[in-house]
Amino acid sequence: MLRVCRLLAALSPVFASWVACGQPEPGTLFGVQIDDRDARLIQIDTATGAAHAVGSPLGFDVDGLAFDGDLLYAVDNTNKRLVRLDPLTGEVAEDIGPFGDFYVIDGLSANPLTGSLAGVDLISGRLVTISRSSGQVFEGRMILTPGGASPPITGLAWSPDGGTLYATSFSGTLYEVDRGTGIITAIGSSSGSALGFDIDATSGIAYGVSTNPAELQIVDLATGVRTTVGPTGFQEIEGLAFVRPRPVVPAVLGREPFTTASLPVTGDSVSELRVMLSVPVNFDDGDIEIENASGSPVAFASSGSGGQVVTLALEVPISGDSYRVTLRDTIESVADGSALDGDGDGSPGADAVLEFTHRCAGDDNFDGQVSPADFTAWIMNFNAGCP
Q: Is the pTM of this model over 0.85?
């Protein structure tokens, strides 16, 4: 019956709008069972903890799993790519694209408002955002405790309102993540190791899974204490992910190069800027404005309309200056025409304003020019032990 449903849906858009062809309901929990770095999709009963396999082994290692609505994304760390899985068959439904040989991504999670895919690069210890349309990785901040430690993060999960990002470490500690700084603040912990982690958007209850054997656990978001639900029947499970409503609000997820006034780009001038959005959008040059630090307009050519990444080719590259990029809320979602959510409040409307700052490599006092005064600043920085 499922095959017939899918065939009719493919042949008739009208029929496809009537039925969901057996797609899993919001609140259904999935994970990946790992056997000698070979992953297989599983579905888990949150009432008992019991799990059953969905399909055959995939033939590659999956450390991160996340739903955006009923679309299931997975990080293939064997072939270094982002893929989409069919939650009904456990097979690869789409090879989205490579994320690069220098990344090992874990803890994948989709923001319930924007659909943005957040993860952790285990090599650099940085938060990353992954494009759902290309697999491209945008690097963020280093994940550090207030004391400067970098614990191994094995799970990320957004609160149902999309306002708080939580993380769990292998040792079972629950953290709250500040995405602006990368600082993680410990909430509490339980004994034993932990891998998968996600929050059910329909109930607000957080779940995790222990290892050897894998037991489903409820995680108290206020204390970090874990309460065992029951055994899954498997030894090791990673990448917990709940089915959740699919967001359509366009919002800014990341930028390249990543830069702020206090964290400028140095070295070669920058001739191209890229901004990743949560959903594919339509735009043209009239929807974007760029000014330098003096308030003068900067000429550019935009590309990428219809996709998720806005690329801005600068006529005058940034060198020892700050450029302010304004994405107007006339930018609209391809899916439903909703306006850009520029202020990140989860509702359409409001411009997004981004600062891109470049400093010359020798500009140690950050005054926008290289001069003898930088030598004094260099000595002060050296004596202060600056990196």
A: no
